[in-house]
Amino acid sequence: MAATHTVGRRGYDVQSSRIIPNVLDRIILIDEDITAAAFLAFFSRVPSMVTEQERFDWDVDQFLSLTDLVNGAITSTTQETITVDNPKYFIPGQIWTNPRSGEFYYVKSVNNSTSQITVTRGVTALNSSGGTAAAAINDNDKLVRVAPAVSENSVRQSTQTTTPTSVYNLCQMFRWELSLSDRQIKRKFETQDELPYQSMKIMKEARMALNRQFLIGERARYTDDNGDDVTFTGGIKPAISTYSWSVGGTLHEYAWDEFLVEEGLRRGSRNKILFASTNVILALSQMTKDRVEYAVNFGQGKREVGIVVMEYMAPNGGRLMVVEDRFLSEAFNGIAIGVDMSELKRRVFSRNGRSGELHVKLNTQDPDDPGQINTLYADMGLQYGPEQHHFLITNVEGGAKGANLS
Questions:
Q1: How far apart are CA 286 and CA 259, in angstroms?
Q2: How far apart are alpha carbons 249 and 394 in whole angstroms?
Q3: Which residues pair with 305 in a beta bridge?
Q4: Average pLDDT of 31-48?
Q5: How far apart are CA 36 and CA 122, in angstroms?
Q6: Predicted confidence band at 61 (pLDDT cuts at 50, 70, 90)?
Q7: Pick from 356, 389, 348, 349: nearest CA to 236
Q8: How far apart are CA 382 and CA 230, in angstroms?
Q9: Cα-flanking dihedrals φ and ψ of residue 170, to 5°?
Q10: What is the overall mean pLDDT for the chain?
Q11: Residues 188-196: contacts with CB within 8 Å, 24+ apart?
């Protein structure tokens, strides 16, 4: 074939198909940042414990209840029967007090069927002891347990204990497939070879999916259309019921501090991690930007995590390490989950040489397939301990210093 004649200056249109492409030698993956799965970054470092079946249980117990409420006002200072919400909190020989009136009561008997206790009124004021005299009792007055007190010739007292509550969760089978033809594996690309790049990408997809499930997944068990059993592991968010606060707009500094002292940091460790969406992080910054500190590599020794965290000091001395979780920011903006990491365990269903830890099963394709299929697989669940050790805040739109004056 004769050569093509060109007249004038040679430009881009001349042999443009033969110009060497200027392509970056790697593919840029959006959201490679570790904050896309911040909770998993910390959760993957908590202790793991093998379970020998897909269901795993743990018991949660607590000390005797400290307080109870009066059910019905009593104007008389001599009436000895008091109706309470929980009569089983009381046994004879105990001292209780009413913080509002200052009166002390000595429990003489308990009637569980009528929810009534019989007490000696103003017991510390008797016999010129100088204590607080009997006073009127209001409906819903709080009574506080103090201690037992017995006579010089006391006999065996009633036993009062609590029974642990059984809590359970389920392991979930996670699975991702990577399938490439033989030729796709052999081809040379201007960027990266397909097999290593897609393998890296699917690992990060799995990381983000695990993060989502362990954060907001609900525990469930059902039979699918093929008659097979499917289990879902419950995440940390649905487990929290005791200490949950719907802010409803602006998060005010004084109300936030009160929540942390009275609820969020009341039980368990006083050093917790707050996995937060951007609305919550901005609210905390708007409240206390001049008083927060920033740090990197939160953790201990070789178990550090390379994430920038905001440290918030609560009025009771507790530390709250605030970390953005990108998933919460994108899908549940306005919420944050306070987690006592010391209570978390990864329960991994492994037995008879078969591992439930996240791992790759190579060459799971059919024997006559010249290509390759690799399977990324895990079988694990979340053990969160007592749900009262964690807390949840929702519906945060902004932050402000001081108190709400509206």
A1: 18
A2: 9
A3: 298
A4: 74
A5: 60
A6: confident
A7: 389
A8: 16
A9: -125, 150
A10: 86
A11: 190/21, 190/23, 190/25, 191/23, 191/24, 191/25, 191/26, 191/27, 192/25, 192/26, 192/27, 195/372
Query: What is the distance between the alpha carbons of residues 321 and 323, in angstroms, rounded to a whole number?
Result: 6
Residue 92 has pLDDT above 60, yes or no: yes
Check: CB of residue 343 under 8 Å from CB of residue 239. no
In the chain, % of residues over pLDDT 90: 55
Judge contact between 192 and 27, C-beta under 8 A. Answer: yes
Q: What pLDDT, on a 0 to 100 scale, did the predictor assign at position 131?
A: 92
Q: Which residues contact 311 (CB under 8 A, 6 or more apart)?
A: 292, 293, 294, 295, 319, 320, 321, 322
Long-range CB pairs of 226-232, under 8 A, 24+ apart, other chains included: 230/173, 231/54, 231/55, 231/170, 231/171, 231/172, 231/173, 232/170, 232/172
Q: Which residues contact 184 (CB under 8 A, 6 or more apart)?
A: 194, 371
Question: Of 311, 315, 215, nearest to 266 (Cα)?
Answer: 315
What is the predicted pLDDT for the residue at 23? 46
pLDDT digits (tens, 9 = 90+) for 158-197: 899 888 889 999 999 999 998 888 888 888 877 788 888 8
132, burial (CB in 10 Å: exposed 0-12, middle 13-18, buried 19+):
middle
CA distances from 259 to 15, 209, 243, 254, 264 (A): 70, 31, 9, 9, 6
Matching residue, tokens 């996670």:
174
